[in-house]
Specification:
It is an enzyme of class 2 (transferase). This protein is an alpha/beta fold and 457 residues long. The protein is built from 12 helices and 12 strands. The strands form 3 sheets. It has a 5-stranded mixed β-sheet. α1 crosses α7, α2 packs parallel to α6 and α3 runs parallel beside α4. The N and C termini lie far apart (156 Å).
């Protein structure tokens, strides 16, 4: 029976039944909603489990990647340390090898110089000249390789300061102007009184290499070296009238051992290292270098560096050598201390050929014995920096000065071109000559240091 079929006198009963139906519908609706929520919660629970599994998988994967990256980083650090150690070892090896190589080379050049001073025939003199040029090429190659190694290893620390550009260019011009003249080239220098911020030694090497290349490749015409100020900078141009550089070659001219075509038949063949050294030195100094060229017309190398900001040091403060003076060594008393037998014998022969009286020794103790019976003090001492038994040449110089007077001149020779050695020698009040020794330089320096040698007393 439905609610409509119930008699009217049962209205109260109908009302209650309707209320129960509404309550039942509401209850069913609540149950249905609860069921839906439980279904959604279950789905969310399932989703959470799935996501948690994925998160764990991704976390594990990420952890493994981080561990792998950490291992790679450790490997990279170890490889970097090995490379740095190899670089330091290479530099130390080349420094030691250069000493061992330059010692016999030094002896050979001294012997050739002595031989050239002897009365020889034309053919013998020509052969001596060829040997001298060959030795010079070997010396240049060794020095260039050492320079490149030190620059790559970062052991060269530029001493940048305010310097006079003319002081630097003066030596470069003096070196290459005669060479250009012999080739029939005009050598033009145009500079004002400019001061720049640079390392005088490195800047001189850069300009020497650039001018050397210009003179070597110019067949006719000439070489121009020009310096001028532009916008707070100094521009130094080295221009030649050589064969020019093709666009393809411009990217390669700074590579080691690359030599361009068309050198104008110089007796001195380029090694292909000059521009490689120039590039490294300009980078070390923070200078810029640009190249422009036209095939068949010539090339221009432009160096840009900062104008001086501080006080310019005078040339004599940089330790530059005084101009050579005429000298005689006749009757002079010279001490030679050199642990390399060949170099010592060659040096003694050279000095004796200049009519000097020489006392030579292998080291300090041997020198003390050799001078024990000598009543006259030496005029000057020529001492090798590295001696046997851990003894240094500066110790010998100190003993000579303590024995014969603090003003005893001493020249220290070494194949070590490091700034530390140079500073140590200067601090001791001694002069420094790098090996291989140039005889004319030694003779002029002795005259400058010891007036009694110049007078032949």
């Amino acid at each position: 029976m439905s609610l409509a079929e119930i008699p009217d006198d049962t209205a109260e009963l109908k009302r209650r039944i309707a209320k129960l139906e509404r309550m039942n519908a509401a209850l069913m609706d609540h149950v249905e909603r609860s069921t839906d929520r439980q279904g959604s919660a279950y789905s969310l629970f399932q989703t959470a489990i799935t996501l948690d599994t994925r998160v764990r998988d991704r976390t594990e994967e990420l952890t493994n990647l981080m561990l792998s990256l950490e291992r790679s980083n450790r490997a990279l650090v170890e490889a970097k340390e090995e490379a740095e150690f190899a670089n330091r070892s290479k530099t130390r090896f080349l420094a030691a090898a250069s000493h061992d190589l330059l010692q016999p080379l030094n002896a050979a050049r001294l012997s050739i110089s002595t031989l050239a001073d002897m009365p020889l025939g034309v053919e013998a003199l020509a052969i001596a000249g060829q040997v001298e040029r060959g030795l010079k090429t070997i010396e240049d190659l060794i020095k260039a390789l050492i320079d490149i190694s030190k620059l790559d290893a970062g052991v060269v620390r530029p001493n940048v300061r305010s310097i006079s550009l003319n002081d630097v260019l003066e030596d470069v011009v003096a070196t290459f102007e005669p060479v250009a003249s012999r080739k029939g080239l005009r050598f033009v220098v145009k500079t004002g009184q400019l001061a720049v911020e640079s390392d005088p030694v490195l800047l001189k090497r850069i300009l020497q290499n650039l001018v050397s290349n210009a003179v070597r490749y110019a067949r006719r015409g000439g070489v121009l070296v020009r310096a001028r100020s532009r916008g707070g900078s100094c521009l130094i141009d080295v221009v030649d009238t050589g064969p020019g550089i093709t666009p393809a070659d411009r990217a390669r001219i700074f590579e080691e051992f690359y030599r361009g075509e068309g050198a104008s038949g110089d007796a001195e063949i380029g090694l292909g290292l000059g521009l490689s050294i120039v590039r490294r030195m300009t980078l070390a100094l923070g200078h810029s270098l640009k190249v422009s060229s036209k095939v068949g017309r010539g090339s221009r190398f432009r160096l840009r560096l900062a104008l001086a900001q501080g006080e310019v040091r005078e040339r004599n403060e940089t330790g530059a050598f005084m101009p050579p003076v005429s000298t005689t060594l006749s009757g002079s008393r010279i001490v030679v201390v050199e642990n390399d037998v060949g170099a010592r014998e060659a040096l003694v022969r050279l000095l004796v050929s200049w009519e000097a009286t020489v006392v030579s020794a292998h080291g300090l103790e041997e020198l003390k014995q050799a001078l024990a019976g000598q009543s006259e003090p030496p005029h000057i001492a020529l001492i090798d920096y590295h001696l046997d038994g851990g003894v240094y040449g500066l110790e010998v110089a100190a003993w000579l000065r303590a024995t014969y007077g603090a003003d005893t001149p001493a020249i220290v020779t070494t194949a070590d071109h490091s700034a530390e050695v140079a500073a140590e020698v200067r601090a001791a009040g001694c002069e420094l000559i790098h090996k291989p020794i140039k005889p004319a330089y030694v003779r002029a320096l002795m005259s400058h240091l010891a007036p009694s040698v110049r007078r032949g007393e």
